[in-house]
Write a structure and sequence with these properties.
Enzyme class: oxidoreductase
Helix content: 40-55%
Distance between the termini: 69 Å
Bound molecules: nicotinamide-adenine-dinucleotide
CATH class of the largest domain: Alpha Beta
CATH architecture of the largest domain: 3-Layer(aba) Sandwich
Strand content: 5-15%
Pathway: Nucleotide-sugar biosynthesis; UDP-alpha-D-glucuronate biosynthesis; UDP-alpha-D-glucuronate from UDP-alpha-D-glucose: step 1/1
EC number: 1.1.1.22
Number of helices: 18
CATH superfamily of the largest domain: NAD(P)-binding Rossmann-like Domain
Strand order of the largest sheet: 3-2-1-4-5-6
CATH topology of the largest domain: Rossmann fold
Largest sheet: 6 strands, parallel
Structural class: alpha/beta
Radius of gyration: 24 Å
Family: Belongs to the UDP-glucose/GDP-mannose dehydrogenase family.
Shape: globular
Keywords: NAD, Oxidoreductase
């Protein structure tokens, strides 16, 4: 029986390995992590992450050929294939701070693999890493290997949170990069055989190592760029009376462009887009390509601009002051169908409103109060955007309440900001909400989920990104 071990039981390691275990009953899969509560949660009925369909997949194979453990070294030692899916955040200090990927976790995983291995292994980069990381990992492994043969593959993950299980069941493509040596090619075939259990051969792409590593950064940069492009258009729509939904539809009808990923919003979030673009910027700079770096930087600048534009719109519409006004925040996760709040635009929007002394009442169906308090307290590093630089003061902390119901959040509020596109926000009883709010009652829709005309009929003053403004 082939044995797989995955280091890192997070948003990628957990779901990816659960699907491999489900689709490959002849393979034993162990997901290991140094985080004890996380592994305990994977072994319980309360999984550590919310992802539609995940519970079901885990239930079907946990205890059969899928295991979660904190005994990292034992399971790495026993594995034939070791996936490494540890976090690769942006460096916060030292060389490349604010841009370069922090490979501390990766390096310590690689050193541990070299240390505990007693047999040949295929080591798979599942984390998103800078191009050429495999070269560094190879050095670490071979210099510490005691004669053991390690083959490094790059197999970046393209799943999107919120649709991870569907994405893993039917991936647009599986990408495997390896060395062009006989050993490298043999390793590619071994990993291909795993995915061939359910992915059609035509969807498994093999490349050299550097193409695979760079493709992941490129894919995220292209996706984020599309969002920033439509968001840039949304600002122009508001200035001219055009409607961004109509513009996106017309543009997306061109088959060369296509309709997906053209929704204007308060901005992109999540743990990947910004970090991976920053990483791309850094790689361009290191390779003497400042103009290319500048091009990709703009994607983040527009995203930051969109968030501050939203905050400014809220404050300006509410007679230039939100001081002591209650503002309901509907949605805190960075997108629907996830409880993940990493880099969510809601953080910047709330910090902006708190900075102007508003009181925010936050409701999200999947986000806990602890997460919100932590996110709003952290003072994030950022190169040149002022919104990020406002830590939450103890006074500001008192201005934040977290509630478990949209009606509670909006009661007596002066305004509602919709920051995540949860389906339930489309069908709320907005008449009831209006009746219980201060007047005039404002709605600022950062995700284009509400029916503007209906809300205006009720009496709301409505602002929706990229749409003609209320008269
Ligand atoms: P995560 O933070 O949710 O999980 C990473 C896990 O690795 C943590 O639980 C941590 O405790 C563990 N870990 C770190 N060092 C370890 C070590 N030495 N030994 C054992 N465990 C260790 O991160 P994630 O969201 O799963 O992302 C992982 C990687 O996948 C990142 O590089 C990310 O960029 C990439 N990625 C993420 C997504 C996404 O949607 N989240 C999608 C594609 C790719």
């Amino acid at each position: 029986m082939v044995k797989i071990c995955c280091i890192g039981a997070g948003y990628v390691g957990g779901p990816t390995m659960a699907v491999i275990a489900l689709k490959c009953p002849d393979i034993q899969v162990v997901v290991v992590d140094i985080n004890v509560p996380r592994i305990t949660a994977w072994n319980s009925d309360q999984l550590p992450i919310y992802e539609p369909g995940l519970d079901d997949v885990v239930k079907q194979c946990r205890g059969k050929n899928l295991f979660f453990s904190n005994d990292v070294e034992k399971h790495v030692c026993e594995a034939d294939i070791v996936f490494v899916s540890v976090n690769t955040p942006t460096k916060t200090r030292g060389l490349g701070a604010g841009k370069a990927a922090d490979l501390t976790y990766w390096e310590s995983a690689a050193r541990m693999i070299a240390d505990v291995s007693k047999s040949d292994k295929i080591v798979v980069e599942k984390s998103t890493v800078p191009v050429k990381t495999a070269e560094a990992i190879e050095k670490i492994l071979t210099h510490n290997s005691k004669g053991i043969n390690f083959q490094i593959l790059s197999n970046p993950e393209f799943l999107a949170e919120g649709t991870a299980i569907d994405d893993l069941f039917k991936p647009d493509r599986v990408l495997i990069g390896g060395r062009e040596t006989p050993g490298g090619q043999k390793a590619i075939q071994a990993l291909k055989a795993v995915y061939a259990h359910w992915v059609p051969e035509a969807n498994i792409i093999t490349t050299n190592l550097w193409s695979a590593e760079l493709s992941k950064l490129a894919a995220n940069a292209f996706l984020a760029q599309r969002i920033s492009s439509v968001n840039a258009m949304s600002a122009l729509c508001e200035a001219t009376g055009a409607n961004v939904t109509e513009v996106s539809y017309a543009v997306g009808k061109d088959t060369r462009i296509g309709p997906k990923f053209l929704n204007a919003s308060v901005g992109f979030g999540g743990s990947c887009f910004q970090k991976d673009i920053l990483n791309l910027v850094y790689i361009c700079e290191c390779n003497g390509l400042p103009e290319v770096a500048e091009y990709w930087k703009q994607v983040i600048k527009i995203n930051d601009y969109q968030k501050s534009r939203f905050v400014n719109r809220v404050v300006a519409s509410m007679f230039n002051t939100v001081s002591n006004k209650k503002i309901a925040i509907l949605g805190f996760a960075f997108k629907k169908d996830t409880g993940d709040t990493r880099e969510t635009p809601a953080i910047d929007v709330c910090k902006g409103l708190l900075g102007d002394k508003a009181c925010v009442s936050i409701y999200d169906p999947q986000v806990t109060e602890d997460q919100i308090q932590r996110d709003l307290t952290l003072n994030k590093f950022d190169w040149d955007h002022p919104l990020h630089l406002q830590p939450m003061s103890p006074t500001a902390k008192k201005q934040v309440t977290c509630v478990w119901d949209a009606y509670e959040a909006t009661k007596d509020a002066h305004a509602v900001c919709i920051l995540t596109e949860w389906d339930e926000f489309k069908t709320l009883d907005y008449k009831r909400i209006y009746d219980n709010m201060q007047k005039p009652a404002f709605i600022f829709d950062g995700r284009n989920v509400v029916d503007i005309e209906k809300l205006r009929e009720i009496g709301f003053i409505v602002y929706s990104i990229g749409k003609p403004l209320d008269a």
